[in-house]
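Aggregate trends can hide what the representation actually does to any particular protein. The sequence in question and its structure tokens are set out directly beneath this paragraph.
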Amino acid sequence: MSETSNNVSNSSAWVYHPVIDLIIGCGAWTAPLLILANPFINSAPQNLAMIFYLLSLFCNYPHYMATIYRAYRNKEDFVKYKFFTLYLTSVLIILGVFAHFSHKILAIIFTVFLTWSPWHYMGQNFGLFMMLNRRTGVEISKIDRSAIYLAFLASYLMLFFGFHTGASLDPYVLSLGIPEVVGKSAKVTCLAMFLLTGSYGLISLISKLGLRAMLAPLVLFSTEFLWFVLPTTLQMANLLDYVPQARYSTGVLAIMHSVQYLWITSYYRKRELSASTNDSSWRLLPYLATLIVGGIALFIPGPWLISYVFSYDFGTSFLVFTALINIHHFLLDGAIWKLRDNRIADLLISSKEKLSESKVTEAFTGLTSWIISSKTPARTLRVVLAIILLIFASIDQTRFFLLLNDTNLSYLTYAEKLNPNDSIVKSRLALIKANANNLEETISILKSALALNPYDLENQNRLAQILVENQRFGEAYDHYQKMLGYIKLDANSWLNFGILATQLNKNDEAISYWEKSIELDSKEITTVIYLADSYFRKSEYAKAITYYESFLTLTLEQTIEQRPTPKELISVALKLSECYVQTNFPEQALKYSEQALKIAESSKDRVLHSFALVKLAELMATLEDFDKAILTYQKALKLDEEIKDNKISSIDWFNYGKILVKANASETMILSCFLKAESLIKNTPGEELTEISRAINDLEKMTGVEKAKIVEDLDNYANKALNLKP
């Protein structure tokens, strides 16, 4: 509803009653209803969902019918708004047909619907704000009106930038892809604009009208704040999770908006009848009954019939109808409810005396006149149609009730019998079958659900996960390839796709998939480490460094419980050290190797501590700092004595001997290390023992050192090697 300034008479500021007007018309019930609808507070979300879906029959659907009733019932109005009532309606019907065959068209109209809905809510709130002010009989200046309008506009823009910032992964919702920085700055600017212009406008109006006269407009302004500004502000402060666009077009906000709409349109109809018949009697229930039955006719039969006749997915068809009916409603509503129209202003604002002078049109002639007449055949037709529509509504409500019981196999089986072409029912049946370990049946049901609606991201991912978990890697890979033709994969899906590719030895593909995952979520630590390790194995050390360092940075942002284990951190630090060695940055290599040692020391794990010392010693030897390498290795060997793991000790003694070779130590000390290593695993044949024995024989042949003499006093010789001063 929009408005324009106009001279008014001194009519009452209230529409029905102060309590009704404040609660329903001005939205004073917003806070308690939003709290009630919060899934984190409500202990029975399924019951609440059923209540809201039932309320759709009595609130949401009728409010659409109220606009159609207003525009189509009178011949004069039908002709006056012919562009909307005839031509636009015809275009939207054609568009609806194409939307059932083209997902792109469906995504466009659904995005338009979701983006337009809050604008429609905002426009209605602003129109009612100005109407309530004008009913006081005081003229509102253009400056005050502009200030209030800018505040309302800013509240909508906060949502708009929230909706269209970043990419959309919802296959039914498109995004303008506004950069995060731009989107956040725009929301902050709009918040400031709302506070400044709103404060100015309200203070100015209060000073002119008084606080008491401004009670209703103030409550309405607070409703606008609670609907739009507060949620976005909490999201910006990271105090509230992202609210999907659909939440602003369905659920509790849609209920409140619809009841508000019925509140004012019923008042308009009452005044219209009073003006045309000079009869003050007004029957609300027949009017609402007409809107309820008409609303059912708009939303329910179409998707059910299309689903049955054409074996089309019920949920998708319902989205088409919902989007197009809303778009039609937005356009038609904007045309017919304008306070700049003298007739509208007379009925909503004017006094009773002026109202009696209003020109009211007569009803349609012909078919429309006959249908709404009191003749017996017409009454019979209305009753029959109403009964049929109520049956449709009952079936639809039953389906929704059965769907809410998503763990009850018998309920879902019955829901499938009601409509076998419902992908939502099939997906929930698949969940139950999966929990019962019916693998083949689960896969079959999911495939049939995806045949109906291949754009269901949740079902696509669920089927892929089941195939992977059951090691059907080839099928899973083919499934992911098909998914790409229907939906945009999210970061987690690209991650899983990459892991799957590695199972099939498609390593280059895996890297490309993980890169796409990182583009969508640069803070997904699992993807980062997969990429780092992949580039490390490919010897692309510069790229590996980028991801390993990113991994270490991301660990600092995690809670202590979420952080990788010391072993994982040490592994990353040592790989970074190796990368820097390979890229000729010895100082950085030493830094990360020492960092690995610090992590190992703080972990109090002797095995990790010894391992880190050995790696640091090897790095020092690579850098030809043999003195420090020898001393560091000696520390590791002393830790090995406490660990008492012969295999670890043997390997470390052998490698220590190799470092002594590079350091040009005496052959006796070197052979002592080799013999100590051999003694520790002499009863455990294997590759390690074979290699050590070969090294001993080679050293004996080359140097002529007497092995037997060392063996007789091996512990003494080993101790000398352990305490060797470099």
Notes: Residues 18-395 form one domain. The chain has two domains: 18-395, 416-643. The chain has a mean pLDDT of 84. The first helix runs from residue 18 to 25.
